[in-house]
Structure of LysR family transcriptional regulator:
Amino acid sequence: MDLRQLRYFLVVAQERSVTRAAARLHLTQPPLSAQLARLEHELGVALFVRHRRGVDLTEAGRHLVEHARRVLADVDAAAESVRRTGQGRSGQLALAFVPATAWSVLPPLLRRFHSALPEVELRFREDGTDAVAEHVRARRADLGLVHLAPGGAAGGVGPDLDVAVVRREPLVAVLPRDMAADLGERVDLADLAEEAFVCPARELTGGLAGHLTGACRLSGFEPTLREVDLVQTVVALVGAGVGVSVLPASAERVCGPDAVTRPLARHVPVVETGLLRRRADPPSPPVQGFLRLALDTPEPDVLGPAYARRAR
C-alpha cells in the first residue's frame, strides 16, 4: 500500500465512479482499476461493490477512507513542515547580544526578521561581548550581535568566528544640556579633558569602552573614567551632571530632557556593529535568512558572496 494508491482510492470513493475518478486524475480507466485491484489484493478485502452505475464503498472501504484521510493529511503536513524548515521559514534561531544593541541595532533587525519569517522561533541571550562570542563558539547561540572594538571588523573576535558588519555609526559627545549650550554645535573633546567621562562597562559593551578611550586619546588626553554597567545608565548620569561621555549616535534615542548629543569636531573611527557566527559550521536556513536581512543594508558584507546583498 503506497500513498499514490491511497490518493487514487479516495478520489474513487468521492466520485463513486472509476470513470469519473480517472478523468479527475487525468488517467485512463485501466491503470486506475489496476491500482485499486492491487490495493484490495494487498489488504485482502474488497473496498468497493461494483455495479453498472459505478461503485459503492464496502464497510472495509468506509473504514479505510477515515484512515487514508488522516494518513495523507499527516504526510502533507510533514512535507509542508519540511519545506518551511528547508526554506528557513520555520525552525529556531538562538541570538546572543550585548545590552547596548537592544535599543539601537537589534529592534529593527528583529522587526524585519519577524515580518519575513514569522514562524521561526527566536531565543535570546543577553550578555557581555566576550560572553556573546563564547556563546556562539560553544553553540549556545547561532549568532552574536556585538559592538566591535576599534581597529577592524574582526578585532578581538578570534579566527574561529566570522564577522558581518551590519551597521556603522559615528561617535558623538553626550553632555549635560547646560554644558552643551556653551560648547556650540560641534564638540572638540580636547575641551572636555578635565571632565570625568562616564564609561559603559568593558565586559558588557566591549567595543564601546574602547571607542570612548580611543577618541579621547586621539584628542590628546587620557580620560578620567567612571564606569557603569549600561549605556542607559551612562546617559542618566550625564544628565545628572556627573560627567560627560562618548557614545554611538543612536544614544540620542535614550537621552532624556537633561542630556543631549553633539557631533565631534575631530574625526574618530566609527562604531561598527557585527554579527558573529561559527566559521566551521554551515548556517541553518533561519541563520542564513537572518544574515541576508541583516546584510541588506548600505554596509559592506564581509562574509563573502554566499550572503551578498540583493541587487538594487
Confidence is low (pLDDT under 50) at residues 300-309. The chain has three domains: 3-86, 91-168+271-307, 171-263.
